[in-house]
């Protein structure tokens, strides 16, 4: 079945209205459509203000007719594997670029990142002693949440290639809905590379952020405990730290998906709020349905995470605990680069393992920003990258990534923690 579509107000804070309803839906589909409508009329943070909403509507219509990026049976297989992670029998490695870009959507870049992920997974399996489920941030990781709506020049901020261009001119920064079509085509091409890579089960994921994109490619899925919508845009989708408002559109949307989903949780999340999220997003207590991605920063993780884990554990839900050691450890270097230190990244993961070992819960995975290329974006590691080295090969479109060497070193250290 083609998707339930939503109708909602079309201003800058709500996704574009895509037109009339599809013909003759069955009752489950009608219910899903109503719930999707309801989700999409809620306030949505971090959405672009399309200058011509009617053009965005036309693009959404076109995207409804586009081929899916992923196949439902692949997503079902990932759900099974994530259930084994939630039971403590496997480990998740999720990683890739902070922001994919159209120019870097090349076979060589994609293959370098895939090769790196598989090398990391091999170390984790061999030394860590658990099967590894590898999920790439790839084939759709084009939308970025930003702290400010305008940059230091007063221009609309870059929101990822799916929305606008990073080039600092007003024309380039003006949100262009046609970019959603280009993003879809690029994602489809990237997925071909993932499949051609052959390694078997590199699943793809991206942040569930740009709702005019995410609302397309949805199918009614009756295979689970309640009728839900399957997204054909990725196997796994996560809600970010800036869009996890309990009454907002993103959480309501994620609730409707049958795909396995993630939720980033930063240090402001209380144990009570964590349990509210878990009850909303995993109402049927499905092991591995929900991944809680903690990104607390290395200084706070040992204090903030334990009461959250205890309270969620006591609720009886079998979530996956995943550590994002990147986003709580970002800082500005003296020479003006957004960076992270390898030691802080490793220390947050060490703290995450200490917390879970202490509470008897499974440290289920890591979520990292990495690239197979030899960039100089993060500090430290075996090559001791210093602030003065950053300008040499600082290439990221958004956040700083660990390079191939730093990532390999990280995997080896995490594998020791996992096996120890
Ligand atoms: C990201 O994963 O790139 C991101 C924006 O993370 P967070 O939502 O945790 O800040
Ligand atoms: Mn990032």
From TrEMBL:
Pathway it works in: Metabolic intermediate biosynthesis; chorismate biosynthesis; chorismate from D-erythrose 4-phosphate and phosphoenolpyruvate: step 1/7
InterPro entries: Aldolase_TIM, DAHP_synth_2
GO molecular function, one term: 3-deoxy-7-phosphoheptulonate synthase activity
Chain residues that bind Mn(2+): 98, 327, 369, 399
Cofactors: Mn(2+); Co(2+); Cd(2+)
Top EC class for this record: transferase
Composition-biased stretches (Basic and acidic residues): 2-16
Any single Pfam family the record assigns to this protein: DAHP_synth_2
Catalysed transformations (reactions): D-erythrose 4-phosphate + phosphoenolpyruvate + H2O = 7-phospho-2-dehydro-3-deoxy-D-arabino-heptonate + phosphate
E.C. number: 2.5.1.54
Region Disordered, annotated ranges: 1-28
Keywords: Amino-acid biosynthesis, Aromatic amino acid biosynthesis, Cadmium, Cobalt, Manganese, Transferase
Annotated binding of phosphoenolpyruvate, by residue: 137, 241-242, 264, 295
Family: Belongs to the class-II DAHP synthase family.
UniProt-recorded name of the protein: Phospho-2-dehydro-3-deoxyheptonate aldolase
Source species of the chain: Micromonospora okii
């Amino acid at each position: 079945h083609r998707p339930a579509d939503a109708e909602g107000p079309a201003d800058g804070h709500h996704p574009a209205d895509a037109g009339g309803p599809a013909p003759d839906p069955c009752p489950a589909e009608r219910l899903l459509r109503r719930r999707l409508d309801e989700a999409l009329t809620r306030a949505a943070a971090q959405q672009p203000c399309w200058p011509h909403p009617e053009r965005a509507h036309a693009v959404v219509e076109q995207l409804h007719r586009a081929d899916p990026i992923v196949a439902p049976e692949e997503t079902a297989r990932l759900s099974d594997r994530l259930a084994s992670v939630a039971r403590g029998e496997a480990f998740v490695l999720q990683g890739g670029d902070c922001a994919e870009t159209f120019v870097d959507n090349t076979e060589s870049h994609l293959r370098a990142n895939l090769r790196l992920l598989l090398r990391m997974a091999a170390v984790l399996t061999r030394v860590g002693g658990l099967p590894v489920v590898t999920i790439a941030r790839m084939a759709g990781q084009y939308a970025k949440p930003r702290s400010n709506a305008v940059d230091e020049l007063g221009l609309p901020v870059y929101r990822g290639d799916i929305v606008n261009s990073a080039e600092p001119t007003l024309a380039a920064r003006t949100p262009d809905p046609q970019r959603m079509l280009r993003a879809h085509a690029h994602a489809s091409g990237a997925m071909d590379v993932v499949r051609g890579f052959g390694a078997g089960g590199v699943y793809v994921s991206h942040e569930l952020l740009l709702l005019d994109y995410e609302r397309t490619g949805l199918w009614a899925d009756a295979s689970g405990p309640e009728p839900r919508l399957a997204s054909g845009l990725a196997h796994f989708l996560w809600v970010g730290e800036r869009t996890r408002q309990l009454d907002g559109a993103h959480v309501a949307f994620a609730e409707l998906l049958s795909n396995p989903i993630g939720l980033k949780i930063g240090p402001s999340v209380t144990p009570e709020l964590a349990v509210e999220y878990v009850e909303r997003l995993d109402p049927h207590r499905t092991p591995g349905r929900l991944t809680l991605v903690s990104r607390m920063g290395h200084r706070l993780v040992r204090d903030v995470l334990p009461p959250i884990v205890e309270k969620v554990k006591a609720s009886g839900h079998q979530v996956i605990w995943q550590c994002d050691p990147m986003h709580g450890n970002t800082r500005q270097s003296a020479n003006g680069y957004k960076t992270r230190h390898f030691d802080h990244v490793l220390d947050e993961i060490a703290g995450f393992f200490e917390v879970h070992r202490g509470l008897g819960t499974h440290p289920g995975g890591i979520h990292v920003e990495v690239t197979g290329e030899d960039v100089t974006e993060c500090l430290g590691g075996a090559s001791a990258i210093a602030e003065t080295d950053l300008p040499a090969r600082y290439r990221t479109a958004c956040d700083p990534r660990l390079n191939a060497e730093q990532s390999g070193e990280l995997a080896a250290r995490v594998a020791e923690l996992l096996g120890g």
